Every structure is written in structure tokens, then in C-alpha cells.
Amino acid sequence: MSAPAYTPESVLSGGPTAAQLLDFALRTAADPEVVASLPLDPQGRTWVRLDGPAGSEAWLIGWPPGTGTGWHDHAESRGAFAVARGHLTEHSLAVHLPSEGWHALQLAPDVDRSRSLGPGSGRAFGEHHVHEVLNGSPAEHAVSVHAYYPPLPLIRRYSRTGPVLTLEHVERPAEWQ
Q1: Which of 2, 34, 40, 51 is deepest in the core (most CB within 10 A)?
Q2: Among candidates 59, 50, 55, 65, which has minimal Cα distance to 12?
Q3: Cβ atoms of residues 115 and 59 within 8 Å
């Protein structure tokens, strides 16, 4: 798969924007050869690292029926994802969390957002975006493309009970690469 044509200005100005990451994810998700290269496992998510644009990190991810990420964020990275096959649901929070110094937060009412994404659709997001992504299908695999810039420094994992969001774990790249 060929890399998108990004101008040197996007690299000099801090890498690709969230919109450029979304463009990459959408075009990659529409490439049947790339999508077919992912081995699918009926028991767990699978992934293959891709060459993202302008120094970004990118992944092709397979989602068996009923799997999801749990609540998490991508720290200081902006990102995007696009669905190549199946359907994914994203639940997100319209709130900016403090980057450190807390363990549990009481969320205000009306911060929950939800969207369903099918083949050819995608979503861009900024830094500290808290969300969970799910394949709610009882029978169909989903496949998606994800891109982040800067490459993920960490992922913060959360649990949620009603309006309370609790920081559970911080993962470093060595744990998922």
C-alpha cells in the first residue's frame, strides 16, 4: 500500500492532523488487499502494524463478534479510525480529563456520546479522547484501521460505574507491540 502524499509542512508543523489521519484510515480501509492481509481469530482481536503517514503509528485490527476495547484514551496522541468490514460502536465522553493527579472522577451529566460506524465510515479525535470501541455483532467480524500521531506514548485504561470513571492501569508500548 502506498503512503498518502503529505506535504513537508505537515511534518514540520507537528505531524499529520486528525483529519489527515482519518483520510489515511479511510483510504486504507477501502483497500481490499490490505484488509485481506489480516488474519482473523474467532476468539480474540488480531492486529497488524501498518506504515502510517508522516511518522504516525497505524494498525489494522480485527474484532471478533462481541469484543471491545474497554474505556481508554491515547494520552497526548490525536487519532482516527475507519471501518473496513462489519460495524463498530464507539462510546465516548465529551470531557477533557486531567492528564495526571487523579484516580477517580465523577462525570457530569450529558457527557456520553455514542455512534455506530459501518464500512467506509470513520472518526477522528483529538488528544485525551476517552472512549471504548465495540463490535456488538453476535456473528460478524469487524475490521478497522487506526492511526495515531504522535505514536502512542501510552494508553490509560479506565473502568466505569455509572458516572464514576476510575483510572485502572497505564500501558506502555512494550505491552502491546
Answers
A1: 34
A2: 55
A3: no
80: CB partners within 8 A, 6+ apart: 18, 19, 21, 22, 24, 25, 122, 123, 124, 125, 146, 147
Residue 140 has what pLDDT? 96
Q: Domains along the chain?
A: 8-175 (2.60.120.10)
Three state DSSP letters for 71-125: EEECCCCEEEEEEEECCEEEEEECCCCCCCCCCEEECCCCCEEEEEECCCCEEEE
**Cell numbers describing residue 41:** 481469530
Encode pLDDT of 21-51 as tens digits: 999 999 999 999 999 999 999 999 999 999 9
Q: What are the tens digits of pLDDT across the range 84-105?
A: 999 999 999 998 887 677 889 9
Phi and psi, residue 63, nearest 5°: -120, 105
Q: Which helix (H) or strand (E) holds 32?
A: helix 32-36
Instruction: Enter the DSSP assignment of 15.
Output: S
